[in-house]
Amino acid sequence: MLSWPYTHLLINHFPVVLSISALAVSILALLLGRRGLWLTAMGALTAAGASVYPVFFTGNKADHALNDPWYIHPGTIEAHDQFATIALWVILIAGAFAAYSWWRSLKRPADLIPGWMRAGVFVGALAAAGIVAYTSFLGGQIIHDAPILQLKQPPAGLPPGLAAEPAKD
Questions:
Q1: Do residues 142 and 77 lie in contact, with contact meaning Cβ atoms separated by under 8 Å?
Q2: Residue 133 CB: number of other CB atoms within 10 A?
Q3: What pTM, to 2 d.p., does this model score?
Q4: 11 exposed, middle or buried (CB, 10 Å; 0-12, 13-18, 19+)?
Q5: CA angle 17–45–126, rounded 5-degree value
């Protein structure tokens, strides 16, 4: 069944992968000085900017749908949400700058990509990758730090199918 938490988990990797890819390609572009690599970095960062709001939106909906369940450590969702807001703005700004840079560079194929534009794409990709990596880490803590995962046995009274006995070899 498609729910807000499931939808968020389904799409949340796009800004992460695209931001990190934009950073990796922009590092290659810095080292090799290839125009095509700069255009690829701009495209990836633009796509990260285009995908970050749907992820943020579904994250807010997922938070409301979960309504602070007992099995999630208090404060983990709020910490993730705080950094998700920062990530939203950083990636939107970096994506908008990259979109402009991409458009301008494609419109002037014979011109060199200006240094200020290359620097902006690199710094934007660095900021986007950094904030999205930390936000992702905090998102993972929502489940990985869940107190229920520390229990040796499932709590009494769980309905069948929610907790299964360990498989025997």
A1: yes
A2: 14
A3: 0.85
A4: middle
A5: 80
